[in-house]
Design a protein that fits this description.
This protein is of the alpha+beta class. The chain contains four helices and ten strands; from the N terminus they run βαβββαββαβββαβ. The chain is globular. It starts with a strand and ends with a strand. It is found in: Secreted.
Length: 218
């Protein structure tokens, strides 16, 4: 999925907060748009999916060929990395800014080697700030629906709801014997360690599993 660059000029000195606000302006074209989640911070570019499931989705993670290494540092995950037109992580600081004022809907789209697509949608998605270690869905229930399975809230031991974010250089998981991020090669909201890891190592056909993944917030 490739995006053209589209500029929406601010009418009040501020850009739209997210892709959903751009959709409300009547714009229904996939593209890279300028958004401003935090009015106190500079605007930034983000990929917007305006076609899937009604549109208005801010794409904060995309993987489809494994060319981008997701085993990055805490700083890289905070600031974001990759290319918006290809594989990328938008950044934990942006995720916090997007969801700070109101919870968002999280939609995960997965595709396997046989081109079978599955979805997992959570009606409440919120990420805390860096001081709180970007805890996901803090104090919020996970309202799941879809056909991909609820791996983010799989069991008492493997429950990603309310967990702090970890990277190989910042271990915040609940696994006392080691570092889940270091072991699984990715930054993630690890428990001890995981039931899902969509930032993990990308396999090119030797193992069955996911070949394409999008994380969308609206």
């Amino acid at each position: 999925m490739f995006y053209s660059t589209v500029v929406v000029a601010p009418s009040s000195g501020l850009y739209p907060q997210d892709c959903y606000e751009i959709l409300q302006l009547g714009i229904k074209e996939n593209g890279i748009y300028t958004i401003q989640p935090d009015p106190q911070q500079p605007a930034l570019e983000a990929a917007c999916d305006m076609l899937s499931m009604g549109g208005g989705w801010t794409v904060f993670q995309r993987r489809f060929d494994g060319q981008l290494d997701f085993n990055q540092t805490w700083r890289e995950y905070r600031e974001g990395f990759g290319s918006l037109q290809r594989e990328h992580w938008l950044g934990n600081a942006v995720l916090h800014a997007l969801t700070a004022n109101r919870p968002h809907i999280l939609c995960i789209t997965l595709q396997d080697w046989h081109q079978q697509t599955r979805h997992a949608t959570y009606n409440t998605f919120k990420v805390a700030g860096e001081i709180q270690r970007y805890i996901s869905l803090k104090h919020l229930p996970m309202y799941y629906h879809g056909d991909a399975g609820n791996a983010l809230s799989y069991s008492k031991r493997y429950n990603h709801n309310g967990r702090a974010f970890s990277t190989y250089d910042r271990d915040h998981d609940r696994y006392a014997a080691g570092n889940c991020a270091q072991y699984y090669g990715a930054g993630w909201w690890f428990d001890s360690c995981l039931a899902a890891n969509l930032n993990g190592r990308y396999y090119h056909g030797r193992y069955s599993g996911i070949t394409d993944a999008d994380w969308l917030a609206s």
